[in-house]
Amino acid sequence: MNYNKRRAMYWYKKACEGNMADACNNLATCYYSEGKKEEAISLYKKAVNLGSVLAKKNLRGLL
């Protein structure tokens, strides 16, 4: 993983901890791209609960 992706994931995680739906969705997408499906599903669910329509679509694609 390159530096920029790690840095982005760091900030997505911070924003997700602050209950920002888009950040949770983006972090889930990063985790999924690394093969961490369970973590991705968990974060997509959090994003859906926070109101993200895109996360709902992404989660449907995984389940």
TrEMBL record:
TPR repeats lie at residues 21-54. The keyword Transcription does not apply. The keyword Nucleotidyltransferase does not apply. It holds the Pfam family Sel1. Keywords: TPR repeat. InterPro entries: Sel1-like, TPR-like_helical_dom_sf, TPR_rpt. This is Sel1 repeat family protein. It comes from Hymenobacter metallilatus.
